Model the fold of this input.
Amino acid sequence: MSKGRTDMEVGADGVAVIAVVNPPVNALSVDVLYSLMGNYEEAIRRNDVRAIVLIGKGGIFCGGLDINVLGAIQKNILEKVKVDYIDAMTDALEVAVKPLVAAIDGLAFGGGLEFSMACQARISTPMAQLCLPELQLGVIPGFGGTQRLPRLIGLTKALEMIMLSKHIRAEEAHQLGLVDAIVSPEELLRAARHWALDICESRRPWVRALSKTDKIEPPEQAREILKFARDQAQKRAPNLKHPLICIDVIKEGIVSGPRAGLRKEGIAFQELFFSDTCKSLVHVFFSQRATLKIAGVTDLGLMPRNLTKVAIVGGGLMGSGIATSLILNHYPVVLKEENEKFLNAGVDRIKANLQSHVRKGKMTQEKCEKTLSLLTGVLDYERFKDVDLVIEAVMDNVKLKQQIFAELERHCPPHCILATTTSTIDLRLIGQNTNCQDRIVGAHFFNPAHTVPLLEIVRTQHTLPQAVIDLLDVGKKIKKTPIVVRNCTGFAVNRMFFPYTQTALFLLDRGMDLYKIDHACTGFGMPVGPFRLADHVGFGVALGTGMQYLEDFPDRVYKSMLVPLMIEDKWTGKASKRGFYMYEGRRKAIPDPDTMTYVDKLRSMAGSSTDPELVKLEDKDIVEMVLFPVINEACRVLDEGVAVKASDLDIASVFGMGFPPYRGGIMYWADSIDAKRVHAMLSEWEKKYGQFFRPCSYLSERAAAGVPLSAATSQAKARL
Ligand SMILES: C[C@H](O)CC(=O)SCCNC(=O)CCNC(=O)[C@H](O)C(C)(C)COP(=O)(O)OP(=O)(O)OC[C@H]1O[C@@H](n2cnc3c(N)ncnc32)[C@H](O)[C@@H]1OP(=O)(O)O
Done:
């Protein structure tokens, strides 16, 4: 946070060019802010300076406030940034006696975009991307963005950008009036200088964003727009306050004028720094980047090879989702199926995935067809001879996978990485009939693979670091957040979340209403409750996984016969339209009264009776009972070295299971509750309900020593 600077050069034309220099994204660190103000004041003072251009060095304008500053303030390492001072800075730019023009190449994010909006004009290159992403960090724009953006582009568009942290490209920004001209990168500086001098010489208007009123909608319409935005924000994230605070701040500017709006923005911005939401989201931001740093893999100086052609074996739900993701990100894909019928079905699924992009306006029909042309369907291995990566995505059957991997070794070039999507089978077993265990790696995607943002990369003791590096690179290019884990049953994500549905089944057996359990979990912020999740995954998969877990972890599998009972009647979850819910149309899930017939049958078969204490549990207690066993398993996953660090599990839970990011991820949340309490509750439940709830040694030791669950093992050992 105390690094970076700005450089100033004054040209013979009288234009001072102030460049932000703080790679990799030119974030506004404390040093950059002070340096910027120093340069600015000097430029205003100097008689040889007539105008100022603000630019970022290295093809990036500015990635916003240095997020380390937020973290440091939260931890009291740094005194609160003087927001008054920053306001004064943006104000100073806006009311400067010499014109300022922002020259934007690459990213103009957060505080960076806000500084540019305080300038009198913005010139960009075609590749520029503009965004106010502050809400994703639990704060609101704090350098005047809540007031200047609506005045530059109107309330409707400004709210869309701010509330959804929506990126816009130069062309759209130009149409909206946020960017005044688009020029090539080579022309950027020259054009910005000219523009600034043109303002000096009154050939172009001197625009002060805060004084603009022409884009703001009339009062009645503005009220409606703000109300709609509020309703949407509440619907999207009922547990979050900062989006509503942001709307209040914008409203203040509309109702009482931009000065009042700026004042309110400053106060709210400072207060939000210290909210748990902001702390959690900052943790998620850095943890997400940290997944790419793996000791013994990414610190060896290896560079990712350029994998240009990918093949997929199996065009089922998973294979077609992965293919969609790859072609959407410009990878040519060969899709192999065993017969014409399955191949057509796979290709149709991919077409349907792309069409849904067209329907939602994310893609034109023309682009859709171009994207689809990257896909080649085949029935044999002929085209595998020049592929760089194969992803096997057939059903989880050891013999079948072993046969496929032996064939892949024969047909693919020797550098080709062979990946499997298995979620349960030991990778060493899959590669047993090959001599290329060092190129075998797990690429565990989550269904639907083209939308779920997590990719679990699984390595064995044989996997070469180069194969992991290459897959990390592909993962990043197809916009997945990858976490690298070690080979074991269920890997990190499925293993960690296995108890989620298990505990729910336990509660159901003891008389709790299943919809109450799901409701409690979604109220906490999970996208779906455990029963809806089971429907989505499908009972066949759930049962298969359950059997595997029973074999590998017999001490902690809760044996419920409910799912097998339903499968007997061909109720298999969402795919069969009957499961714990009934399904109408594509999405609608309706509580199914007939499900209770199975529950009652099971209860009478097992002779189980309602537990009066459990059925009285409130939502908060249900959430703890369902999620504490998840924490317990996450501790085991960490202790066994399946995951490298606790923050990887936070990311896995957020991006793989939809754990609410504003709670920081599963381990972060556990530490916020305190390991002692998690341990105490599990111990109490173990006594009452059996070993399913028994706390593992990692949790017990850390709870006893008062060490956070997320503390790195070496630090923790020193304290244990
Ligand atoms: C007052 C204001 O209103 C408040 C603010 O401005 S709050 C900050 C607003 N800005 C943001 O939220 C931007 C956050 N950053 C991003 O979205 C993305 O990093 C990006 C789009 C800028 C670049 O993405 P990408 O090219 O994929 O690179 P990415 O790996 O994410 O980042 C590269 C490095 O820059 C760092 N970085 C990115 N933005 C940063 C920021 N604003 N502060 C500090 N570090 C940042 C990352 O941590 C990463 O560091 P590492 O290499 O050590 O892991």
